[in-house]
Design a protein that fits this description.
461 residues; binds iron/sulfur cluster; alpha/beta; globular
Length: 461
Amino acid sequence: MTKDELQALLTGPDLIFRHAAIDDIVISFPAHADLFFAAFHEDGELAKQLADAAQQWMPALREGYDDLLPPSASPERYTTFQSLAASHAVFLREMHKDLAMLDRAAAQRAIDTLWYHFPGLRGDLQRDAAYPQPVEHRQLMVFVTGQCNLHCPYCFSKELQRSSISQTDMLRILAWAERCHVQSLLPCGGEPLLYEHMDWLMREVAARGLKMYFATNLSVPLPEAMLSSSHVLGQLHVHLTDELFRSPSLLSTFLRNLQQCRDHGIDIILRGNVYGGETQQPYDEWFRIAKDFGLEALNVALTIPSHTGSNRFVSFEAMQALTPLLRYIWEQGREHDIRVSIAKPLPLCLFPEEMALDLLRHDYNATYCNVGEDSGMHNLSLSTDLRFSPCLGVDEPSVPFTDDLSWEALRRVFSPAVRALQSQPLFERCQGCFLYHRRLCQGACLSYKRASRNGGVPCAG
Ligand code: SF4
Ligand code: SF4
């Protein structure tokens, strides 16, 4: 398409043609960099659409796991993901060329828009100007119960205490959360739907104007409030356990529950856990359920080590051996038109480049998790014995719950601990990798690094 044609489609009324023009401009960058930046400076919806497309093709424009990313270095410096480094360098070059042509006021407005839409450029922009930190989203994960109807052998919560949090303690926790301006509560377990006060908790959460997200095996009777207060539920992460496919009665409860959740408009993310071993897991069934229920994506995770590593987790060596299987699942996703994403970070350099780039373009979790967001407080967890930790995979350091504890006090303890684990390279070759340099890859779930530091689970080292 010519520049004039692209320009006409970009500003025309047809949304399908507009998206086609956006993709064309982004994919052929920098051929139409002038169109890109001119439209971008208008801000508004078009800038957002351009930003979304650009972040898919140049993932380094997205946020890494640190607020202030390091400056970009020459692409030649990298031995891994050099093509990404090259496209990022081109984007920066064109951006600076464009800014240089604007007058001072227009350049400042353009920088503000870039700062807002491209978190991955904030480090580059902050070196020249002062910007406020992004607004935090505060959420709290509470291990409400250690009970589960399945106790899958690969689950990280295998050695959780089977006890539950009392209503009295939960009221203290909710009051604390309100004082600390927490916006969402994530009940966790065990199986949170087996928490004996779940109905009550959902109503308490609704009354306080909080949102609730959680992961469930969805194979137990649904609490009444789950459907009557479904507006409180931001999202359900539904685990496709192997046990479901071994028991027709469990499967029928699961499918009935899933249908009810869909009927009530609850946002569902399907999750399949891969643990390898001799048993063939029912991958085809995962895709069939996704298709039958009109779900467009399937989230896949390798099972992670529990605190003591006593569960059937995927060891670091096995992780490398399982890459052909993950590739098979990813290819199956393409065949079924279901987008496969990664729920826990993996070293993308283990995969063929086409798959690695596809995951990176479409999946924020493929290489780093969000535990480091909001200064290491994004996944704040509270265990059944009322101790805070940075997340379920990083249970050290931990701090006992007290009613007068402040968010900032926890942040001072957890932020440096999370940062240290995230930036610990997984392989020697990470030092030459563009993803590592831009802090776009933490290599693996931090539970591996935490355990390996404690002399427990072996890591790549
Ligand atoms: S594990 Fe290291 S080398 Fe591999 S993709 Fe991540 S940062 Fe790059
Ligand atoms: S550290 Fe592991 S368990 Fe925690 S958020 Fe990241 S991937 Fe998930």
